[in-house]
Amino acid sequence: MQKILIVEDETAISSVLQSILSDELPTHEFIIAADGLEGFKYIEKEDFDLIISDIKMPKVSGTELLKQALQVKPESTFVMISGHADIDTAVDCLKEGAYDFISKPIDINRLITSVKNALNKEKLAKENKTLQKENSTLKKKVSKKYQMIGESPALKKIHDMIAKVASSDARVLITGPNGAGKELVAHAIHSQSERSRGPMVEVNCAAIPSELIESELFGHVKGSFTGAIKDKQGKFELAHNGTIFLDEIGDMSLIAQAKVLRALQESKVSPVGSDKEIKVDVRVLAATNKNMQKEIEAGRFREDLYHRLSVIEIYVPPLDDRKEDIKLLVDYFAKALADEQGTAPKFFEEGALKSLESFSWTGNIRELRNIVERLIILGGNTVTAEDVAAFVRK
Ligand SMILES: Nc1ncnc2c1ncn2[C@@H]1O[C@H](COP(=O)(O)OP(=O)(O)OP(=O)(O)O)[C@@H](O)[C@H]1O
């Protein structure tokens, strides 16, 4: 039940207020306090959805009550009641944080509107808080999904680099073989940066046909080419105030590279078929498994774009160069998979771990994760070296 506190020293007025408002708001509970002091005691003890307070009262005035209450309960919503003589004080109350004021003699319609609006505001504020909580839980879940496990010197160095670059807007090129964790690095940079409140938009440059990449990145207007049946926003625009992650940038066509270069130079994008330019504030992260020097020498990648993208370069080494992380990764994946399936995590015997460490992991961490999943499904309750020998062909 929603609760409203009426603080008023004139009992005639407080009972009229209560009677009018309880007709309008029959499901609300009303509590009356005879002065500011009593009102404050109630506020300390209970939470009210709305406090209606007279300004002029003996002992503690309405203004004082407002200040004190907002100190202990900053989210309280106040509607003040003022006499003709204290309109200025009423305006001051608004500056102090009151939601509204009503002057005496009280106009009933004005009172009801103000009270309903104030309650609505309170309801919206509560809903907003719940949404914020849900959002932070979701963010925590997402950041768990992108957790980077490992304590090898190589991984520690990567964590240090991420912490250093996250706070800046510098462009970062993340290099390393397939499945090594480049996407995780990109997510970690975004989530540790100021931009984490904004979007992170990922584009897999290798997966988009070259004739569509321009429209994908910069958007298009209806009718600009066959199939453009309506206006479409590009990924750069969608990433405004956030981060764009250009994955597999080494596979981007030279034509698209020229367009991206222009977007980076001017911080503006032009949708296909439009002469309009849209200003975007986007941090660019890119990743590739290609050797960029070779790509440049072969004329497949523009050197000027490479320099623009690689202000900072983070190299994620293959798993074979950090085998000391295998045990931690196996434990982590075993636990994550058990959580997903709602089962107890399986234990990997020392012998099983030793075998896994002896392999060469060309598919890197992605491959290790798949093998752990296979062993959990096919192996015994405890995964042994024999299980590894039986189910992993290396
Ligand atoms: N250090 C790590 N801790 C936990 N999981 C990891 C780690 N590194 C990679 N992974 C997991 O391995 C898989 C591959 O990682 P990711 O996609 O980041 O690699 P990538 O280098 O971007 O690969 P590709 O070049 O193929 O896109 C993902 O499921 C990722 O969550």
UniProtKB/TrEMBL annotation:
<feature type="modified residue" description="4-aspartylphosphate">
    <location>
        <position position="54"/>
    </location>
</feature>
<dbReference type="GO" id="GO:0005524">
    <property type="term" value="F:ATP binding"/>
</dbReference>
<protein>
    <submittedName>
        <fullName>Sigma-54-dependent Fis family transcriptional regulator</fullName>
    </submittedName>
</protein>
<dbReference type="Pfam" id="PF25601">
    <property type="entry name" value="AAA_lid_14"/>
</dbReference>
<dbReference type="InterPro" id="IPR003593">
    <property type="entry name" value="AAA+_ATPase"/>
</dbReference>
<dbReference type="InterPro" id="IPR001789">
    <property type="entry name" value="Sig_transdc_resp-reg_receiver"/>
</dbReference>
<dbReference type="GO" id="GO:0000160">
    <property type="term" value="P:phosphorelay signal transduction system"/>
</dbReference>
<dbReference type="InterPro" id="IPR025943">
    <property type="entry name" value="Sigma_54_int_dom_ATP-bd_2"/>
</dbReference>
<dbReference type="InterPro" id="IPR011006">
    <property type="entry name" value="CheY-like_superfamily"/>
</dbReference>
<dbReference type="Pfam" id="PF00072">
    <property type="entry name" value="Response_reg"/>
</dbReference>
<feature type="domain" description="Response regulatory">
    <location>
        <begin position="3"/>
        <end position="119"/>
    </location>
</feature>
<dbReference type="Pfam" id="PF00158">
    <property type="entry name" value="Sigma54_activat"/>
</dbReference>
<feature type="domain" description="Sigma-54 factor interaction">
    <location>
        <begin position="148"/>
        <end position="377"/>
    </location>
</feature>
<dbReference type="InterPro" id="IPR027417">
    <property type="entry name" value="P-loop_NTPase"/>
</dbReference>
<keyword id="KW-0597">Phosphoprotein</keyword>
<dbReference type="InterPro" id="IPR058031">
    <property type="entry name" value="AAA_lid_NorR"/>
</dbReference>
<keyword id="KW-0067">ATP-binding</keyword>
<dbReference type="GO" id="GO:0006355">
    <property type="term" value="P:regulation of DNA-templated transcription"/>
</dbReference>
<keyword id="KW-0547">Nucleotide-binding</keyword>
<dbReference type="InterPro" id="IPR002078">
    <property type="entry name" value="Sigma_54_int"/>
</dbReference>
